[in-house]
Write a structure and sequence with these properties.
Elements lengths: L33 H9 L7 H4 L1 H7 L4 E10 L2 E9 L9 E6 L6 H13 L9 E5 L4 H6 L20 H11 L5 E9 L2 H15 L13 E5 L5 H11 L13 E2 L2 E2 L5 E4 L15 E7 L8 H21 L2
Parallel strand pairs: 3-4, 3-5, 5-10, 6-9
Antiparallel strand pairs: 1-2, 2-4, 6-10, 7-8
Helix pairs in contact: 4-9, 8-9
C-alpha cells in the first residue's frame, strides 16, 4: 500500500533493537545515486511475463469489453502497453466504478483478482454500473515481482501530476471518462517480502535506517481518513471474512503501525499521500490488503478474496448511491 506503513517476520540480518539491516545496494546512510540505481536494476531479473500472463487474458476479455491502451512504458529497451478494459457503452444514466490492480507489481492477487472479476462476475453488473478496470498498473514491477517501477519509484505514493508514467497515464484515463465515479477499489497485498526486501530496500535507497515491523496475518482494508465510509468498509470485510481470515490488531491495537478503527479497517489520508485510491474522487473508495503468505490461505483463496471484495464494494455502493 504506502511505502512506510503498508509494508510490514523480521528478516535475517535485521535487529529490532538497532534497526540495522544490510541491503546489498548502496552505502549505509547515503541515498542512492545513478550508480546504485543501475546496480539495483541489474539485480532485478525478469521472473515472469506480462505479455504471457496478463495480456492474453485481457485480449480474450476484449471480446466482451472495450480494450483501452491508455499509455506505454519504455524502460531499458523494453516496451509495455498499459491496458484497461471498460464497458463498450458508458451509459450517462449509470454510475461509474473503477477497479485497479498491480499498482505494486509483485502483489499477484491484485492483478489476478481484477482479471478473475471480469471473467466471472462483472457480467452480473451489466446495466447497473459503467465499469473501468486496469488490471496491471505496473507491468515492469509485475515481471520483476517488485513493488517499484524501473526507476525505483513506488507508484502508490506518486499519483500526482509529476508522478511516473504508470501514475499519470492512469490519471489521464480516469479524466477521460465522462461523469463522476461512485466507487474505486484498489487491490493490494501485504507480503512477507515487504519486510524481508522492500522496506530494507527503501531505507537503503533513501539513506535511512531500517526499522523492522510486523506483517499482519490476514485481510484488511484501508479507508480514506478524509472521506470516511465505515459501513462501506465493513461490508467488504464481512464479505471477505467468508473467504479468508481478517487480520487482527497487534498488541498496540494497530495494523502496520496504524490504529485499527474497526474490525479489519485502518485509515490513511489518500489524497495527501498521493495514493491510487484517491484519483477518482469517488464517494466510496477502498484499498484491499490480502496476505498471500499465510499458512491459512492459498493463491486461489487470495484471488477469490479480491473478487469478493470488488463485488461487495459494488453491491454496497450501488445500493447506497
Amino acid at each position: 500500500m504506502s511505502e512506510r506503513n503498508c509494508d510490514a517476520v523480521r528478516p535475517a540480518g535485521a535487529s529490532a533493537a538497532t534497526g540495522i539491516h544490510f541491503y546489498p545496494v548502496g552505502t549505509a546512510g547515503q541515498p542512492w545515486g545513478a550508480a546504485e540505481l543501475d546496480q539495483w536494476r541489474a539485480s532485478q531479473p525478469r521472473r515472469r511475463r506480462y505479455d504471457q500472463d496478463v495480456v492474453p487474458r485481457i485480449e480474450a476479455l476484449a471480446e466482451r469489453y472495450e480494450k483501452v491502451v491508455y499509455g506505454r512504458l519504455e524502460y531499458g529497451g523494453e516496451s509495455y502497453a498499459l491496458l484497461a478494459l471498460r464497458d463498450r457503452r458508458f451509459d450517462p444514466g449509470l454510475p461509474n466504478a473503477l477497479v485497479t490492480g498491480g499498482v505494486h507489481g509483485y502483489e499477484t492477487s491484485g492483478v489476478m483478482g481484477a482479471l478473475e472479476f471480469l471473467e466471472t462476475r462483472a457480467a452480473d453488473y451489466a446495466g447497473k454500473v459503467n465499469l473501468l478496470v486496469a488490471p496491471c498498473v505496473n507491468p515492469w514491477g509485475y515481471e520483476r515481482v517488485n513493488r517499484w517501477n524501473h526507476d525505483a519509484i513506488d507508484p502508490n505514493r506518486n499519483f500526482r501530476a509529476d508522478g511516473p508514467r504508470e501514475c499519470t497515464a492512469l490519471i489521464e484515463l480516469v479524466r477521460s471518462i465522462p461523469g463522476p465515479f461512485l466507487m474505486h477499489i484498489d487491490l493490494h497485498e501485504t507480503t512477507d517480502s515487504d519486510e524481508s526486501e522492500f522496506r530494507p530496500a527503501m531505507a537503503a535507497r533513501d539513506g535511512d535506517l531500517y526499522e523492522p515491523d510486523l506483517i499482519p496475518d490476514g485481510f484488511y482494508v484501508v479507508d480514506d481518513a478524509e472521506n470516511r465510509q465505515p459501513e462501506f468498509q465493513q461490508a467488504i470485510v464481512a464479505a471477505v471474512e467468508r473467504v479468508t481470515h481478517i487480520a487482527p490488531p497487534d498488541e498496540n491495537d494497530k495494523i502496520i503501525g496504524t490504529p485499527v478503527v474497526a474490525h479489519g479497517v485502518i485509515e490513511y489520508p489518500l489524497r495527501e499521500l498521493s495514493l491510487c485510491a484517491a484519483i477518482t474522487g469517488a464517494r466510496y473508495t477502498s484499498t484491499t490488503e490480502v496476505y498471500p503468505d499465510s499458512a491459512h490461505a492459498t493463491p486461489a483463496q487470495c484471488n477469490e478474496a479480491q473478487v469478493t471484495a470488488v463485488c461487495a464494494a459494488l453491491d454496497y455502493a450501488l445500493t447506497h448511491a
